[in-house]
Amino acid sequence: MYLTKVWGFGSPVGPLQFSSQGWRHRAKKRLHPGDLVVLVGTLGPPTHEGERGRILGLMEPSMESVLSLDFDIRPGAEHFKNGKYKWPYGLHNKKAWTFLSRPLLNQISDRQFYMDAVLGIVPLTDDEAKRILALEYVEAPLLLKTEHAKKRHDRHESLTARYNSPPPSNTMRTGIMHMRRAPAYTYAMEILGAKSPSYKIGWAFDFNLRAHQFNRAALPELGGIHYKPVLYEQWGTARDAYGMEQTLLEHFSARRHTANHEILTDLSEADLTAAWINYINGKL
What we know:
This protein is α+β, with helices and mostly antiparallel strands. The chain folds into two domains: 2-139, ph1033 like fold (Roll); 147-280, no CATH class. It contains seven helices and 13 strands. The chain has helices spanning 21-30, 115-119, 126-133, 147-162, 207-218, 238-251, 269-280, and strands at 2-6, 16-18, 37-41, 55-67, 80-81, 84-85, 89-99, 122-123, 137-139, 184-192, 198-204, 226-235, 263-265. Strands 1, 2, 3, 4, 7, 8 and 9 form a seven-stranded mixed sheet that branches. Strands 12-10-11-13 form a four-stranded antiparallel sheet, sandwiched between helices. Strand 10 (184-192) and strand 11 (198-204) form a beta hairpin. The two termini are 35 Å apart.
């Protein structure tokens, strides 16, 4: 079981939310099927006084990455900064529960929880988890995606089926840019089996299909390298996805492999994630 701090917990319940893809990625690496996340109100505003420091709810998140505003969560003005929602990235929930008594966290645990519990998820001890599960709680309904989000997803699936990315290549993909107005992803794939920490940066209409194509060519079953998607960002157009790809590659120009300029070598995951988040936040 894990803990995260929130500004409130209502029903129906939306996704488990994060401020950046990096924090969501960290959570996904920690979580396993069936793991639970308990939500505790922060000690100050904008959390309502009656919810501050209290155990509010419980979630069973899935590994499905979603956008928080694809759900009808109806955030207030305090949840936005410079016109951008502060917690845009989420994990879809399988189930959620509301605690009836909502005790204070310090009645369950005498530990101090810090900013990592606000931005991400923090593991609880077995004793803390047992105390929380001993509380009385009831299952809560889940929010569904908005009709707009469903239509966008269906449109993306249709475009993906019609326009698959070309097979792996060491050259820039220019011919396919006529589809620049279609939704697409920027992706980062960890290259497992490389001599040093390495990542493939690119864009595609379907990054999972792209990874499959790379792995089919690399033949990891015969001792070759394996491509594993670790970061991805969906954009409204392929032009935007391509722009992020190029900016990241230029930012790490000193790390680009001489044989394939879309591969970065001797690069830590922390440095890559930091640059990724900075680009999304308009700081790169």
